[in-house]
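Friendly challenge for the regulars: who can give me the structure tokens for this chain first? No prize, just bragging rights.
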Amino acid sequence: MNLAIYQNLDRDRQDMKTTTSAETNCPLCGSNVGSHFFRQNKRSFHECLNCELYFLHPNHRPNPETELSHYNYHQNEPNDPEYRKFLSRLATPFTRRLPPTSKGLDYGCGPGAALAAMLEQAGHDVSLYDPYFEPDTIALQQTYEFITCTEVAEHFYNPAGEFERLNELLNPGGWLGIMTSFAPDRDKFASWHYHRELTHVVFYREKTFEFIAELYDWKIHLLENNVAILEKP
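First reply, four minutes later:
Bragging rights claimed.
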């Protein structure tokens, strides 16, 4: 594993830590959030009333070694019919909007890069980046006509910085496709399965994506079924 990647991740984590457990700032919009609204297994979750992001307190995030061990546990084979069916919730409506032979980036592709394989089979050129499995930052020195981010955004320790990076990587007129489980209302959060995954640290509601789109002047084309498709002007 590239040590520099670990060092960068650790620095990002330190930048996001707060000095007290009583209050913290939203990692997306920077608003002061205050005390937690939900706690489970010594993990505290907060809700931002400005952008409606839910997030795990920075002090309770897993370290890089724990993250990697969890990622290695998942077996997402590119040719698995069930996994491809799952990814098609993004791939199908997304590819309908792409010009032929577009150049794109699978951001946070994971070890199998199944979505990238599906998009390549549809005739597109897809580069890969993942801080653990495809850490070559050359892919981050280019710009793209589309970017996909599948089951990745919930792992962002610094979503403000990550979405800023995605905006910089995306060409004008480009497309961004995100798949992540949309968070329920606050009173249903405790019974929601998604926050129980140790590596899931931020959770988006539809209002959160509307906030992000407004921030970057992106146009929302689809926001349902745990899929967000946005276009950069």
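Residues 96 and 125 are 16 Å apart (CA to CA). The first strand starts at residue 38 and ends at 40. Your move, everyone else.
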